[in-house]
Amino acid sequence: MAARTMQSMKSVAGRRTQPAQASVARALARARRVARCLVWLAFALAALPVVCNAAPTPRDPLVPDTSLPIPTLHFDGAGQLVISPSATSSRHDFDYLVGNWHLKNRKLKSRLTGSTEWIDFTSRVEMHQILDGLGNIDKYTEQSTGKPYEGVALRLFDPATRLWSIYWADGNSGKLDPPVVGSFENHVGHFFARDTYKGKNIIVVFRWDVRDPTLPIWSQAFSTDEGKTWEWNAINISQRAK
User: Fold this and answer.
1) pLDDT at 50
2) Between 20 and 30 A from 215 (CA), which of 75, 95, 102, 144?
3) Which of 98, 169, 167 is nearest to 128 (CA)?
4) Positive or negative, the Cα torsion across 57, 59, 62, 63?
């Protein structure tokens, strides 16, 4: 009888010990998981200053900067563009461009067709002032097609309206395109005109971004819906020739 009682007591003690051991094991497992998390957290905190201090990836200057908004267009009763000068518009706005420049260019292979294929090439520009600073002329040359191509940009400042008109002609047409008209504000110029491209009525904008006048950026966009949407199709960045 005593032996059976002792066996019974040992059995009860064993059953009480098993839950206690399981509880200790679970606590140890939790402690190990917490320790691992703390180690990973320490690594992450150590790396954080490196991530925060890393230099941002520089923006490709030959990709049109869509963070710069194109000004809202205004029209008169006949649907013609109404363009007003900025408060700072000046005859000296293109003084930075005097001299000789090497250009890196990029243009869409096909315009107004949904193309996303761009063509890269180089060119040269020689710019000098005329009319005592009220105008200037660019001579543009390149050979991206394997044969010489030459264009001329004529820019004229009207003291009465305080607007710039930019005319373009090249060896393909031998005539001046309709001028794009506008002015600079905060070192960015926008110049607009109605025109046609392969039979489509468009509005064209030239943008001159001279926030860094040592590396001026010119770009061009077309709109077929009165300025609601735009397709950027050409861009170049200029570097002064040495």
Assistant:
1) 46
2) 144
3) 98
4) positive
